[in-house]
Amino acid sequence: MIVWQKAHAWVLGVYRFSETFPPRELYALTSQFRRAAVSIPANIAEGFKKSGVADKRRFMNIAQGSLEECRYYLILSRDLGYGDSAQLLEQLEEVSRLLNAYTRAIETPGS
Known about the structure:
Layout: H1 2-18, H2 26-48, H3 53-79, H4 86-107
């Protein structure tokens, strides 16, 4: 699945980006950001294997929630001066578009 591949690549970028955060953030922003990021492809994968539309939709919704959480962490990281998050934000937008398209396809009868 392309959406999973893009989300996984994005997580790798989050890990690289957050390596530069101050040590005091290790158990705060760094940890929260990484967990939310990992949740996106993890829930896409889990939802993909579910057989019912409602289950699939629920996991995609969880992934979407984690994506929005990460969007905030990118804004916060930028505003705290922890680095330029513009490229990660662009990648996140692509993952968001793909995830929304996949979710719509799940909800379309006959897909």
